[in-house]
Amino acid sequence: MATGDPDDAPGDHVGTYRPPAAFVEQANVHEGLREAWDEQGAEAWATAADLLSWSTDYDAVLSNPEPPLTWFPGGELNAAYNAIDRYVESGRKNRVAIKWAGRLGETRTLTYQDLYHEVNALASALSELGVGEDDVVTLYLPMVPELTIAMLAAARLGAPHNVVFAGFSPDALAMRMESTESSYLLTCDGYLRQGEAVDQKNRADNARLALDHDVHTVVVDRMGFDVSLGEGEYHYADLVDDHGGETVEPVARASGDELFVLHTSGTTGNPKEVRHTTGGYLAHVAWTTHAVLDIEPEDTLWSSADIGWITGHSYGVYGPLLLGATTLLYEGTPEYNERDRLWELLERNAVDVFYTAPTAISSFRKRDVTVPDRFDLSSLRLLGTVGERISPSGWEWYRSTLGGGDAPIVDTWWQTETGGMMVATLPGVDEMKPGAAGPPLPGISVSVVDRSGDPVEPGERGFLIVDRPWPGMPTSLANGSGWAPDPSSYLVDVDGWAYVTGDRATVDEDGYVTVLGRVDDVVIVRGRRLGTAEIESAAMSVDGVAEAAVVSADGPAGPSLYAFVTPAGQETDELRERITQALEAAVGTSPVPATVVFTTDLPKTRSGKIMRRMLSNITDGDALGDTSALRNPEVVGELKSVLHGE
Ligand code: WTA
């Protein structure tokens, strides 16, 4: 099997593919849908809202064509009711909602009925602790079923959840609780990360010390550690036992009310809050799970992303449960060092649709892995990717190895801010072009524009913008304030309303978008989105570091993060090790795919700004162009020689 070059250029389509006839026949969405939606405009999104149960009907699809706007104004609904109760009521209570696979091979299965019981018991307990509508409940948990249960329990009470990725540091947790004024925290005793036990309770305690306000803390027993509880602390299992059998009325939320907050990396140092609505977000997510992931109620969907990221929220939790399907939660990440786990999990759970990041695919492909004969992956009907550009050859590998040579692949472009998928092929309708995500989904309008906001010619690079409102838009955009990325890095002058995504892209004659990467200081590490500013400040906090700049580039060590460090004193292996540890803590993953490069200086403009673009060009081995803006051009030669031995 040819694995090809992992780095083949975007847009180098190896060919185009039609979805196989057998798939087309059973698909949820058929030919003609795009045309029908185009004719209806925003009204077409009623089809998405109809996948939900509303306690009060909405009056209109969209309040205004321009912000401030509300999707499905007048409508009321509850997320937990939509994800659980309606399936219990409709006689599907014994259908499996969650299949959990633990790190050590443990398994747990929850039917919709089980989920109903546990979510109600926890919601009742939280309500007794004081959680009311609009109180933010923070969840600092690894991939355990209790994380999903807690999200739904909060949603049942109309309390926005605030999930903080379990691998993040106590500081990151404190910052996210402080900014959301959150006084409720669910965490656990500990968990396994890359085979090592992490004392999560201790980390949570450290975060709480940094807060000015009191925090009620609920501790899930994941590891069986002996945790002694202080004032305001409770064992999760005790709460659920004490409140077992109790039910809580799902709180009716207005469509535009907040369902959750999730922090993501922006262009400035601090992560930004992204708040998603109840009606618009859920409609968007339910519809894309139905139309793009092609999920039917009898399906099992495995979305491998951690719930700490938006993909886990939208397609690990809400999407599959809103459709009454089964979601597989795996406590680890499918990577090569656990290679048989991937096949085992797919086979044992008869996964119908697998959704993962290109990083996971490359980790297998680099080693030319084939599926051992003893595994049967024939249950897989559709494959999806998200988070980064997938190379055409990675796409081909995914299809031939996991997809049995003919499963359609959906390459989905979207962001934390968009809530759900925005650009992707409809798997039973559209032709696929490996390497290009696809056309905008029905009801979505995107453009690739130049600095003046004018659409670029097919094949030319430009900035990707969304120029019509969409249901999964966050509250800040709906209210009319955007986040145009840092104007000093580039400026897009768009006429009228638009959301500037921060991505660079091309579009071809057929309207297929290829996303090339970020234009700002956001980097994607192992499919996870981080700000270089956050990582740099971690490196800078290491004793012995004078200055640091981080870029993501494809250098001599392959695609990874490169941290350029000017030491205050000696360049030692010990310093390198401490920097690596700080980077691991910031990224929340170990080992971190980062290379530390010592240098006597960093390339700077005359005004003293570090030129990160130049650092990535040097690392990539690209042409540097004009270096006259540099105050210290001699550093270029030094870096080239350290990196490439030139
Ligand atoms: C990148 C993840 C290429 C992009 C859902 C975007 C992609 C950022 C793709 C958002 C794709 C996401 N092809 N790049 N199919 N999907 N990206 O907020 O740069 O964690 O802006 O949301 O990931 O990352 P976030």
Write up what this structure looks like:
With 646 residues, this protein is α/β, with parallel strands linked by helices. Among the domains are: 113-251, Rossmann fold, CATH 3.40.50; 446-518, Luciferase, Domain 3 (Luciferase, domain 3), CATH 2.30.38; 522-644, GMP Synthetase, Chain A, domain 3 (2-Layer Sandwich), CATH 3.30.300. 29% of the residues lie in helices and 21% in strands. The protein has 19 helices and 27 strands. The strands form seven sheets. A seven-stranded mixed sheet has the order 3-2-15-14-16-17-18, sandwiched between helices. A seven-stranded mixed sheet has the order 10-9-6-4-5-12-13, sandwiched between helices. The radius of gyration is 24 Å and the shape is globular. Residues 1-7 have low confidence and may be disordered. 5'-O-[(S)-ethoxy(hydroxy)phosphoryl]adenosine (WTA) binds at residues 264, 309-311, 386-389, 411-416, 437, 501-503, 515, 518, 524, 529. This is acetate--CoA ligase. One of its GO terms (biological process) is acetyl-CoA biosynthetic process. Residues 534-609 form the AMP-binding enzyme C-terminal domain. One of its GO terms (molecular function) is acetate-CoA ligase activity. It is an enzyme of class 6 (ligase).
